Amino acid sequence: MFSGEASMKIHVAEAFRQVGNRSEPPEIQVSFYPFAGLNHTIRIRKQRVYVRVSDVLRDAPQQVYRALAFMLVSKLYNKRASTEDVKLYRQYAYQPDVLRASDLARQQRGRKRLTGSDGFTYNLDKLFARLNRQYFDNELTKPTLSWSARRTKRILGHHDYVHETIVISRSLDDPQIPEYLISFVMYHEMLHMKHRSRIINGRRIYHTAAFRADERRFDRYEDAAEELDKLAGR
Ligand SMILES: [Zn+2]
Questions:
Q1: Count of domains in the chain?
Q2: Which among 53, 195, 232, 234 is most buried, taking Cβ atoms within 10 Å?
Q3: In a 10 Å sphere around its CB, with 0-12 CB exposed, 13-18 middle and 19+ buried, how is residue 49 labelled?
């Protein structure tokens, strides 16, 4: 009996021979990956093929691996996968208990990702502590700080006052992002803790005049605002 990785590798190689008409298949690396949900990817980098299969399919039968291998390689060659393969894959993957497993995996990962303020480049606890000292006389109580699960580009920060949580987009956890920029996003969210929203003429206003005035106290306000405009325009 082969492991899931080894048998998937054999099927991917066969798919390259048949779909890609290659006598010699490329070097292939297969790994099961804790994707949220039923996600699988195939990539070529430097003549090597990298296949990542959602670990929800770890116990799938051989025919399902084979069908998935052919679907992935067809995608690579911009060809339509055969109806039988798609049918085989779907019949298995869309079974209620497989779907439930993928749902469960997604939920657990969603929850897991919500903990931890330490990113690859920035640490949200440290950022918060520094800004609290510099601008708020240490008067803000530290909320739950977390990176977003996805690398959201349009929403860079969010303050949830019900759960006392500040979420910062994972897209900012990047050495290309200058520290003053992520600091400004965090500072903005911290201002939401200080300035509660107000109802004015029947509308809830989050960014009151006092909020905006405080926002301009940020030491690199002009630079940060300009950079954010550029990011939003991308
Ligand atoms: Zn805001």
A1: 2
A2: 53
A3: buried
Quote the ligand 1 centre to 189 CA distance (angstroms).
Answer: 6
Residue 220 and residue 154 in one domain? yes
* Mean pLDDT within 196-220: 88
Distance 192 CA to ligand 1 centre (A): 7
Can you give the pLDDT at residue 2? 61
Domain range for 216: 124-233
Let me know whether 107 and 24 are in one domain. yes
pTM for this entry: 0.52
SS3 state at 43: strand
Cα separation, 207 vs 135, in Å, equals 18
CA of 80 to the centre of ligand 1 (A): 45
19 membership: H or E segment, kind and range: helix 4-19
